[in-house]
Fold this sequence. Notes:
The protein is mostly helical. It has a domain at 41-174. Helix content is 70%, strand content 0%. The chain has helices at residues 12-31, 35-41, 48-74, 78-81, 90-111, 115-146, 151-173, 195-198. The longest helix has 32 residues, at 115-146.
Amino acid sequence: MYAMTWALGPLFPLWIAIYAASLAGIVWIVSTVAPSELAERVTSRFPARGMAVFSGVMALALVAMWSQRIAAGLSGDYETAMLLGQTTLVVQALDLGLIVPLCVFTAFAAWARRPIGYLLASVVVIKGVTMSGAILAMLVSALVVEGKPDLFGFAMFGTAFVATCLLAWRVYANVTEPEFTAEKPAVVSRPQGGAAAAR
C-alpha cells in the first residue's frame, strides 16, 4: 500500500525494497518447509479446531466490516467510505482479495488436520495478533489526539489481542522440534603392512 497508493515521497524506494524483500522472503521460507514432515511434529493438542473457528470468524469479520464501506463508496457516500484522499479502497481490496481467501482455506485445512493447514495456521494466527495489536495502537493514538476513549473498541480489540496471543502460544507450543540422532562414525578397516601383512 505504501509503495503503490500513497503520494510520492523520499521513502518511495524504501517501500519498494521492503515490498520486494517481503515477497522473496515468503517464497524462500515456504520453500524450506515440508508440510508432510511438519504434520509428524504436531502434537495431538494442536488447536486445529480453534484455528479453524478463528480463521472463519476473521474472514467473516473482514467481509462484514469492509462490505459496508464499499457499498457506501459505490453509492457516492465518500465520507462514510473514508477514502481519506485515496482514489480507491486499497486496504479493503487487499484484505478481501488476499486475507479472506487465506483465512477461508486455512479454516477448512486446519479443521481437516491437513498438513498445509498446520503451516497456514502459523501464518494466520500471527496476522491476527499483529492486526488486533495495530488496531489497539490506533485507538491509543486516537485517544491521545482526541482525548476521548473508544471503550467499545478497546474492549473488543483488547480481548481479540489477548485471545489471539493465547491461540498463537498454543499453536507454536504444540509443534515439536525435529529429533536429531547422532550417528556413530563408520569404522574403516585399513590394510596392514610390514610384518603384520606377511603373517
